[in-house]
Amino acid sequence: MNELPRERLHALLRQMPKAELHMHVEGSLEPELIFRLARRNGVPLPHASVEDLRAAYAFTSLQSFLDIYYAGASVLRQQEDFFEMAWAYFERAAADNVVHAEIFFDPQTHTERGVDMEAVIVGLAHACRRAHAELGISASLILCFLRHLSEDAAMATLEQALPYRDQFIGVGLDSSERGHPPEKFARVFARCRELGLHVVAHAGEEGPPAYIWSALDVLKAERIDHGVRCLEDPALVRRLAAERVPLTVCPMSNVKLRVFDTLAEHKLPALLDAGLCVTLNSDDPAYFGGYLNDNFVAAFDALPQLAAAQAYALARNSFEASFAPPAVKAGWVAALDQTFARLTA
Ligand code: HPA
Ligand code: ZN
């Protein structure tokens, strides 16, 4: 199965069913939609055109990206805006044969500007239901706390979201990592676990391996978002492998934010060789140059060690790592097996 010609490997990468588990819906806001929503909502923009805005997407670090990403999200005001943003993502995801998506949203980015929690969650949840009905994508929401803000602010956000508790399946932790370790959010995550919410956290993107340890031990994170810096700590790698803690890795994001200088230097092969439950994801596709299949194709083209066996492992891991019920996961794996049988024969 490892000797497929390049075009057939590409077809396999594109056509295999897969889950996306690390995608910030605000990061799917394309410049065209930013301009349309800005006009509709009367929000002034610092850029004269879509081209000008795209030209500003030259990042040197996570923070340099976040500044532009939060500015882009400022055009979102009404429930309908949140629906349209998420629906546009689901249409793209369906084209990439994504059959399941657990998408992140950042309510504090909006509630801090005076947008109602209801507009955010109800708009996004409507898009999730429609994605299931019309595109066959099972979709759920994960509420992320902004780690550059205080734990009290996170707790207040959780309370505001609780009337919509049945509209999201879990919580995550994102935004500026350095200087904001997971343990800063110990209490709010404990409360989330009591509420039966799933728990994930960004760790080990720019932050050190110690942040991955504390995401596991203090927050009890069930998945680590990014986590690529685990390779600096062999004991941590052994633990992640033994416990099959998934790492949601985002290759194009890592290059755009300079975690790795080039895709050819990305440590994805080492992560897979270490026996880790790695998945591939797009993170912020409108900002980092591509959606999920673009990430698969670019990573496999840049890293010749990756072949059909690794494609299968990544897709299978994406289902294993999801929060779907076991019987549903088994159905997706059966569909994956059929695709492989057809395209590698
Ligand atoms: N890291 C941290 N916070 C984020 C990211 C990311 O890659 N994308 C959106 N918010
Ligand atoms: Zn992320």
Walk me through the structure.
The protein has 345 residues and is of the alpha/beta class. The protein has one domain (6-343): Metal-dependent hydrolases (TIM Barrel). The protein has helices spanning 6-15, 31-41, 50-55, 62-73, 79-95, 107-111, 117-135, 151-161, 186-194, 209-217, 234-242, 251-256, 268-273, 285-288, 292-302, 308-320, 326-344; strands spanning 18-20, 98-105, 138-146, 170-174, 198-203, 223-226, 247-249, 278-280. Strands 1-2-3-4-5-6-7-8 form an eight-stranded parallel beta sheet. Helix 9 links the parallel strand 4 and strand 5. Helix 1 runs antiparallel to helix 17 and helix 16 packs antiparallel against helix 17. The mean pLDDT is 98. Zinc ion binds next to loops.
Which word captures the global form? globular
Number of helices: 17
Low-confidence stretches: none
Number of individual domains: 1
Portion of residues in beta strands equals 5-15%
Q: Largest sheet, described in full?
A: 8 strands, parallel
CATH architecture descriptor text:
Alpha-Beta Barrel
Helix-strand pattern, N to C? HEHHHHEHHEHEHEHEHEHHEHHHH
Q: How many beta-strand elements? A: 8
CATH topology: TIM Barrel
CATH superfamily, called what?
Metal-dependent hydrolases
| Euclidean distance between termini CA atoms | 8 Å
* Helix share, percent: 40-55%
**How do the strands of the widest beta sheet line up side by side?**
1-2-3-4-5-6-7-8
| Name of the CATH class | Alpha Beta
Structural class assignment: alpha/beta
